[in-house]
Amino acid sequence: MKKLPEAIGPYSAYRRQGRLLVTSGQLPLDPETNRIEAESVHDQVLQSLANIEAILSNEGLGWSDVLKLTVYMDDLSAFSEVNEAFGKVLGEPFPARTAIEISALPMGSHIEIEAIALGGQG
């Protein structure tokens, strides 16, 4: 089982009901330190995606099971960095995706990503 960052509040990192898996927003927390170690938007995206991948793996799922990703960003001008990082991790068919700019994220993060997946029997 892959290690996940600890939740930073009274919530679950994810919930699974049958075949449906929904994550909470995944900050780019390093699972070893539970801190944001990555500084660039690109590297923060990679860490958030790694955290989602760990959740998927722990539930016997993979990226092909992900239907939708929602990306919260503190600056949409970094959208090309987000796309570059996504391209390194995800392959076709890509999940549906929404990007939303918000004024601030917890712990000074630039990125938070949530996922919805539908996989095998749960």
Task: Reconstruct the topology from this structure.
Elements: E1 14-17, E2 20-23, E3 29-30, E4 35-36, H1 41-58, E5 66-73, H2 79-89, E6 96-101, E7 111-118
Parallel strand pairs: 5-6
Antiparallel strand pairs: 1-2, 2-7, 3-4, 5-7
Helix pairs in contact: 1-2
Structural notes for this entry:
The protein is an alpha+beta fold. It has one domain (14-118): 60s Ribosomal Protein L30, Chain: A, CATH 3.30.1330. Helix content is 24%, strand content 28%. The chain is built from two helices and seven strands; from the N terminus they run ββββαβαββ. A hairpin with a 2-residue loop joins strand 1 and strand 2. The radius of gyration is 13 Å and the shape is globular.
Instruction: Name the CATH superfamily assignment.
Output: RutC-like
Order of helices and strands: EEEEHEHEE
Largest sheet: spatial strand order: 1-2-7-5-6
Largest sheet entry:
5 strands, mixed
CATH architecture: 2-Layer Sandwich
> How many domains, in number, for the residues?
1
Distance between the termini: 16 Å
SS class: alpha+beta
Helix fraction bin: 10-25%
How large is the share of residues in beta strands? 25-35%
Name the shape in a single word. globular
Radius of gyration: 13 Å
Helical segment count: 2
Mean of all residue-level pLDDT scores: 95
Low-confidence stretches: none
